[in-house]
Amino acid sequence: MHKKLIAAAFGALLSAGANAGFVAIDTFDSGDQSIVLNAVGATDTQTNAERSLSATVDSSTVPPVASTASVVGGILDVTNGTGEISTVTVGWSLAAGIVPAGATGLQFLFTVLESDQNPTSIEFTLDGTQVFSESIPGGTVNDDVAFGIADDLLDAGGFLELTLTGGSGWDLALDSIGLNFVDPETPNPTVPEPISLALVGLGLAGIAGVRRRKA
Ligand SMILES: [Ca+2]
Ligand SMILES: [Ca+2]
């Protein structure tokens, strides 16, 4: 249901002469990482060219601890064993000009592939300032989440950080974090409308008929 609402809302932003654009921030398709934590208070950070991934075990009520955060198989996947709560952060250094100058209608977009029965919370910050926060209900499957941001928010780039946590034992899989925008610089290609072509065809047929009668 979310997907349709997002499509309708984004379509309404488009006007004549404007094209929809999309730029991926992270598809999680490269730069595999794997964090495995086995104690309360344990923490690890793995940084590569694509992103920085961190996880910390905040608490556990049912030993042993087996908490994971990974980018494997093209997705971001977090698991917590029964009774465990971890906090996971994913950070990206965004270059200036990630969206074209003059773009409007900016939206962050990501896909919640699957959550277990636990609610989870998602927060995005840019250079430490919160830009979005939402609770994802337990049992969410294949749901796109989009949220609008100021058109000039990313003009200078910055450090984008996603923070995830949830109810005891929470699991969550995400994919495809990116940006929707409307690029006013790109005009729509001019394509003759079918009705115009039909009228031209009828006109030619009429001329041909007149010529036949005269002959
Ligand atoms: Ca992917
Ligand atoms: Ca779990």
Question: How would you characterize the overall build of this protein?
Answer:
The chain has 215 residues and is of the alpha+beta class. It has one domain (2-190): Jelly Rolls (Sandwich). Helices cover 15% and strands 49% of the residues. It is built from two helices and 13 strands. The radius of gyration is 25 Å and the shape is elongated. The relative contact order is 0.21. It binds calcium ion (CA) (2 copies). The site of one calcium ion (CA) has 5 residues, from loops. One calcium ion binds next to strand 13.
Topology:
Blueprint: H1 2-13, E1 19-26, E2 33-37, E3 43-47, E4 52-60, E5 67-72, E6 75-79, E7 84-94, E8 104-115, E9 120-126, E10 129-136, E11 141-148, E12 158-166, E13 172-183, H2 194-214
Antiparallel strand pairs: 1-13, 2-5, 3-4, 4-7, 5-6, 6-13, 7-12, 8-11, 8-13, 9-10, 9-12
Bound molecules: calcium ion (2 copies).
Residues 27-29, 74-75, 175-176 line the site of one calcium ion (CA).
Spell out the key features of this protein.
215 residues, Jelly Rolls, seven-stranded antiparallel sheet, six-stranded antiparallel sheet, 2 helices, binds calcium ion
Question: In what range is the share of β-strand residues?
Answer: over 45%
- How would you describe the shape? elongated
Structural class: alpha+beta
H/E element string?
HEEEEEEEEEEEEEH
Hetero groups in this structure are: calcium ion
What does the average pLDDT come to? 87
Count of DSSP strands: 13
Through-space gap between termini = 64 Å
Per CATH, which architecture?
A: Sandwich
| CA-based gyration radius | 25 Å
CATH C-level class is Mainly Beta
Q: Treating each run of at least 4 consecutive H or I residues as one helix, how many helices?
A: 2
How many independent structural domains?
Answer: 1
